[in-house]
Amino acid sequence: MECKVTWMGADGMSFVAQTGSGHIVAMDGAPEGGGHNLAPRPMEMVLLGTGGCTAYDVVLILKRGRQDVTGCSVQLQAERAGEDPKVFTRIKFHFVVTGKNLNPATVERAIKLSHEKYCSASIMLAKTAEITHTLEIVEG
């Protein structure tokens, strides 16, 4: 896996990242840090990548377990250390999983497997952050 991050110029703190798979992602800093608030912050990208990683796992595990899953979203709320390095210290994941006749224990197990075995991002972040999660199952 590889990527390239390029600073977009001296008048701000905007960067463009190109992934090894050919996708382009913009990042920017807060105005008080010299940015123009035109794109997500780099640490927001870390958080959203973690959400994508774990949601992917949960859907895949449920599908492989023959659960009739039709939707999955995860909202993340994170706290960071007050001083540098401002690592994540607490992250709460709130999963909303939609499907027909979903078994709550099976969905809970999928989330646990993601956090403990499969999602590299949440496993890395758990080295500095307390990870918790809540779950809401929606019939439909």
Automatic annotation (TrEMBL):
**Gene3D superfamilies cross-referenced by the UniProt entry:** 2.20.25.10, 3.30.300.20
A Pfam family cross-referenced in the UniProt record is OsmC
Q: Which PANTHER family match?
A: PROTEIN YHFA (PTHR34352:SF1)
Native species of this protein?
Answer: Cupriavidus taiwanensis (strain DSM 17343 / BCRC 17206 / CCUG 44338 / CIP 107171 / LMG 19424 / R1) (Ralstonia taiwanensis (strain LMG 19424))
Name of the protein in question: Protein YhfA
Instruction: Tell me the SUPFAM superfamilies matching this sequence.
Output: OsmC-like
Q: What is the lineage of its organism?
A: Bacteria, Pseudomonadati, Pseudomonadota, Betaproteobacteria, Burkholderiales
